[in-house]
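# step 3/5: fold
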Amino acid sequence: MYLDLKERSRFLSNARFMSILSIVAALFLVVGCGGGGGAGGEEESVPSAALPSAPPVNTPAEDLPASPGSLSIQPEGARLPVGGQQHFSATDTLPDSEGIESDVAWRIEEGEAGGSITNDGIYTAPARPGTYHLIATSRSDEARWAATEVTVISQGAIRVQPAARFLGPGGKARFSAEVTETPDKTFFWSVREQEGGAITEEGEYTAPTAAGTYHVTATGRSDPSLKGEAAVTVSSLLPKGIACSASPRQPYLAWVSSQSAVIAWRCSPGGTVRWGLGEERNEALPDRTVQDQHFALLSDLTPETTYSYEVEIDGERFGPVATFTTAPAQGSESSFIAFADSGTGSVHQKRLAEVMKSRSFDFALIAGDVIYDKGADSEYDRGYFHPYAGLIDRLPFFPVPGNHDIVTDGGKPFKQNFYLPRGNFYYDFFWGETHVIGLDSNKVADPAQKRWLETALKAPARWKIVYFHHPAFSSAEYGDTPSVQLHWVPLFEQYGVDLVFNGHAHGYERTVPINGVTYVVTGGGGAPLYPVGRNERTVISSATHEFVSVDVTADTLVLKAIDITGAVIDTFQINRPE
């Protein structure tokens, strides 16, 4: 029979106490009997060196000095992963046998919960992390023993799939979990938040009705410190029956021409566009990819014709029904807006968006810095999709990148969220007889872009409009852009460009016609404003949040700069030469 640590401590303390009493009694007899000096007897005494140095009886067992014949366990204070193994040995500490391995019996104070150990001292850690105690007792003398602590740590992992899910109120999703690097592969499910929904033992999760972000958790049964989580975002934008694997973006127009349109959305790999003339929507275009982002091309459309569309996922409508009108193939009458430096999610951007919604136009040009601060995908909802909701599902917006848009992965999120016909950041399109050319001014000196630009400018058109981010001419803080003046301005002048829109300088400025070309900086789209300046080229400059509206006819371009209140702060007309 072996004693536990507390019992052993009491046993040793009582043994020492009884030993002390025996010694005291012996001294009393010796001193007491001889102290009277019996007739003819010699006085006997006990040398003080023979008295044992005993501790007080109330000294805790762990504070007792090591007794002769005690043992030492090596290694001390071991740390092991769950299920890990370690060989332990016990050695004598007596001077004449110090370091010699002793024949001991091993046990674990916590019993089976603390793991297991063989007669040879090979210890196997349990599946549950914690602190456990190994005890070695001499087989020849049970009074000789030693103990050491073992700390068991977890090196396992639990991976929950999918890692993120987006659901509508009351929506459902199924989760699974994989447990690695630990002997016990079992786990249980829970939801971290008290009102975060419910999950079954099989991983079937039901979302709450309240919008928010919640966390599904898988916890190791034998090791509660082992956890894996998945985030669930409940959005009122999603119907109950749709589960998205990426942050959902409801359907929007990514491109419109006279004979085609591109419907974009983001949710999960599957989806179908139902579309048709007017309100019929009797055509179906399945769009199943390996990606969550979709660009579904509707082709063979009729110019200047109105169509309606909707997107279905798993048989349920994703987003509202919307309409769009294709571009005219001929003619010049149209209207559009232009702006830049918008995507901050600021109150100024949102107010300008509301003013835009109150006006009638056919398309929009965005001259860069569509998304602040770094053009990251996580910034797109705040900087683009939310402010312009209600516009971008029925009207095409044509953006080109600014310097902020390419900070993240060289502009990869820009290409993921916007439709670029050739995969480049520069492209062109016709709206009737108006030729619109968008450029990437982050790479002005790119010879391929310059060759493409010259080819595009040679195409015949009644009006030629170019837009890009960095201004050729500006009196504001950043000033002119010499590379644009060197590489592009001569082409604008050579091929008869009528109007150029830019951003980068956060404010509004219009120049006089420079060799026949009018330059407009419309950088007041929502970002913080910069001080403006004036020089000999400036007609008007204003540090204000604004966008520009342009009405196009066969003979005129009528430009109006509109501020955050809807007031017109500048008007200008370009007449087509006879």
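# step 4/5: annotate
The first helix runs from residue 5 to 35.
# step 5/5: archive (pending)
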